C-alpha cells in the first residue's frame, strides 16, 4: 500500500486526486491536503468582481465529494514540506507522511514586490475568489461615484488573460449602467505589445486585442514597470525595446486592478533541489522533481521558462489545458512507479484560452505553447463569451459530482474542428 498525497485543491489538485484515485491500486490511499474547504473555479473570478457571479456559484464543497470518491481530505494549511524525509508539517502542528507527493499549490501572489500594491495596499485583485468578493464590494461603492480606472499586469507577471478580461468586463458593466462616459480606463502592462500574453502573441491576438481596446476607448501603456502605488496615483515607468527609460507616468485612479507576479508558496520556498529561486517546483519532462524522485508537481506552481526575453520581465502563463495534461501524465507516471517501472508519460503543454471580453470574447490556441508552433489560431466573437459560460457551468457541475474529464482537450478538439472547417 502507498499513500499518495496531493497538496492543493484547485484546477490542478482536484482533477489530480480524481484521476489518481482511478489510476492507483485499490489498496493505495489518495489524500488531498488543502487550506480551503472548497474548490473555486478561478477563471470566473473577474465575473465575481462585478457581481455577475456569486462566489457560491463557483465553489464546490470538497469534503463530501472526496468522501464519496474514497479520497481522504485534510482541510489544513501546509506549513512545510520535508522531501528528505517524506513528511509534511500542517498548521495544526500535526505531520503527514507520504510515499508519493504531488505539489499543486498554485501561486503565491507577490504583491509585496511593488510598494502599495494589492488588497492590503491600494489596488483590487481577482486572483483569488476572496479578493474578487472584496473587489465586488469596492465596485458597488465605485459605481456610485465613478472616476479613472487602471487595469493591467505588473512586471514579472505571467497571467495576462484575466487582466484583459477584467478591463473589458468592467467596460461592459459600466456601459450597462450608462456611466462609462465618466470613467477613463487605462490598460497598463509589462507585455512588450498588446496581445503578447506572455506567449509572444498567438495568431493575431495583437491585432484583435488592440482593435478591441481602441473600439472600447481603453488607452494602453505597454513595456510598463509599476514603480509604486499610492492612494489614487500609480507611478509607472515606460521603457523602450532595450529596457531603457522612455517616459514616466503618474496615473490618477479611483479604482485599479493589476495582476501581480507569481512565486511558489512558502511551504516549499528555499528547499534545495526542490524549487528554483522564486519557489517554483523544478520538474523534468515527466512532471517529476529531478532530486526527489517521488515528488511530482502540476499547475501554476511548476517552474517553466519564459517564452522569450522581454524589455520588462514577463513569464509564460500556465493555463487550464496545460494543467490538465500535466495531471494526466502525473497520474500515469505515479502508477508506473507503483508498478516498479520508470515514468514515461509527458504532458502536451498546449495553450488554449477563452478570454471573455464582457459581451464578446477572444479564443486562441497555441500548439505547442512554446514557438515555433504547429498551430497558432485566434478568433473573436460573441460565441466565445457564450462558450466560456457554458464551459464554466459544465466544469463546475462535473467537479461537484467528482468527475474529472479531459475538459480542455475536448474543448480544444472542438475549436480545432472549427479551425479546420474555416481553413477548408
Ligand atoms: C483570475 C484568473 C483567471 C484565469 N483564467 C483562466 C482561464 O480562463 N483559462 C485558463 O486556462 N486559465 C486561466 N487561469 C490560469 C490557471 O488556470 C488558474 O490560475 C488555475 O487556478 C491554476 O490552478 P492551480 O491548481 O495550479 O492553482 P490554484 O487554482 O490556485 O489552486 C491552488 C490550491 O492550493 C491550495 N494551497 C496553496 N497553498 C497551500 C498550502 N500552503 N497548504 C494547503 N493548501 C494550499 C489553495 O488553497 C488552492 O486550493 C486564470 C488565472 C487567474 C489568476
Q: Mind explaining what this structure looks like?
A:
Residues 3-306 form the FAD/NAD(P)-binding domain. This is Sulfide-quinone reductase. GO terms for molecular function: NAD(P)H dehydrogenase (quinone) activity; nucleotide binding; quinone binding; sulfide:quinone oxidoreductase activity. The protein has 424 residues and is of the alpha/beta class. The protein folds into two domains: 3-41 and 60-109 and 263-347, FAD/NAD(P)-binding domain, CATH 3.50.50.100; 111-261, FAD/NAD(P)-binding domain, CATH 3.50.50. Helices cover 28% and strands 24% of the residues. The chain is built from nine helices and 22 strands. The chain has helices spanning 13-23, 45-48, 62-68, 129-142, 161-176, 205-215, 320-338, 382-401, 407-423; strands at 3-7, 29-33, 38-40, 59-61, 72-74, 78-82, 87-90, 95-97, 100-103, 108-109, 149-153, 185-189, 218-221, 224-230, 233-239, 245-252, 255-259, 262-263, 295-297, 351-356, 361-367, 375-380. It has a five-stranded parallel beta sheet. Helix 1 (13-23) packs parallel to helix 7 (320-338) and helix 7 packs across helix 9. The longest helix is centred in the last third of the chain and has 20 residues, at 382-401. It starts with a strand and ends with a helix. Bound molecules: flavin-adenine dinucleotide. Residues 7-13, 33-36, 42-43, 45, 77-78, 104-106, 126-127, 159, 161-162, 265, 267, 299-300, 319-320, 323, 353 line the site of flavin-adenine dinucleotide (FAD).
Amino acid at each position: 500500500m502507498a499513500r499518495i498525497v496531493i497538496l492543493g485543491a484547485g484546477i490542478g489538485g482536484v482533477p489530480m486526486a480524481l484521476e489518481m484515485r482511478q489510476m492507483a491500486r485499490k489498496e493505495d490511499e489518495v489524500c488531498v491536503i488543502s487550506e480551503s474547504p472548497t474548490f473555486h473555479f478561478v477563471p470566473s473570478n473577474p465575473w465575481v468582481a462585478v457581481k455577475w457571479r456569486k462566489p457560491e456559484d463557483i465553489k464546490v464543497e470538497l469534503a463530501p465529494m472526496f468522501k464519496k470518491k474514497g479520497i481522504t481530505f485534510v482541510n489544513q494549511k501546509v506549513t512545510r514540506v520535508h522531501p528528505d524525509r517524506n513528511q509534511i508539517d500542517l498548521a495544526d502542528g500535526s505531520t503527514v507522511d507520504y510515499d508519493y507527493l504531488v505539489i499543486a499549490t498554485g501561486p503565491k501572489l507577490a504583491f509585496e514586490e511593488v510598494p502599495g500594491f494589492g488588497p492590503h495596499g491600494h489596488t483590487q485583485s481577482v486572483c483569488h475568489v476572496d479578493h474578487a468578493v472584496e473587489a465586488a464590494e469596492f465596485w458597488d461603492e465605485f459605481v456610485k461615484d465613478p472616476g479613472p480606472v487602471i487595469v493591467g499586469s505588473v512586471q514579472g507577471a505571467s497571467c495576462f488573460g484575466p487582466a484583459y478580461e477584467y478591463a473589458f468586463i468592467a467596460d461592459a458593466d459600466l456601459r450597462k449602467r450608462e456611466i462609462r462616459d465618466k470613467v477613463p480606463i487605462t490598460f497598463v502592462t509589462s507585455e512588450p505589445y498588446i496581445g503578447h500574453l506572455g506567449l509572444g502573441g498567438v495568431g493575431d491576438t495583437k491585432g484583435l486585442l488592440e482593435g478591441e481596446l481602441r473600439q472600447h476607448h481603453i488607452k494602453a501603456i505597454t513595456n510598463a514597470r509599476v514603480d509604486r502605488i499610492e492612494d489614487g496615483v500609480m507611478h509607472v515607468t515606460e521603457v523602450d525595446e532595450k529596457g531603457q527609460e522612455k517616459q514616466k507616468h503618474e496615473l490618477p485612479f479611483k479604482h485599479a486592478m493589476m495582476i501581480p507576479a507569481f512565486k511558489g508558496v512558502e511551504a516549499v520556498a528555499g528547499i534545495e533541489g526542490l524549487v528554483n529561486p522564486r519557489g517554483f517546483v523544478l520538474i523534468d519532462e515527466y512532471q517529476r522533481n529531478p532530486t526527489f524522485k517521488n515528488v511530482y508537481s502540476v499547475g501554476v506552481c511548476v517552474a517553466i521558462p519564459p517564452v522569450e526575453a522581454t524589455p520588462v520581465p514577463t513569464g509564460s502563463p500556465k493555463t487550464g489545458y496545460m494543467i490538465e495534461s500535466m495531471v494526466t501524465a502525473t497520474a500515469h507516471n505515479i502508477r508506473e512507479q507503483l508498478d516498479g517501472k520508470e515514468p514515461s508519460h509527458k504532458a502536451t503543454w498546449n495553450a488554449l484560452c477563452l478570454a471573455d471580453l464582457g459581451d464578446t470574447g477572444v479564443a486562441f490556441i497555441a500548439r505547442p505553447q512554446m514557438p515555433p508552433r504547429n498551430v497558432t489560431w485566434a478568433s473573436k466573437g460573441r460565441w466565445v463569451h457564450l462558450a466560456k459560460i457554458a464551459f464554466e457551468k459544465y466544469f463546475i457541475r462535473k467537479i461537484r459530482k467528482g468527475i474529472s474529464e479531459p475538459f480542455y482537450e475536448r474543448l480544444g478538439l472542438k475549436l480545432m474542428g472549427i479551425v479546420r472547417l474555416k481553413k477548408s
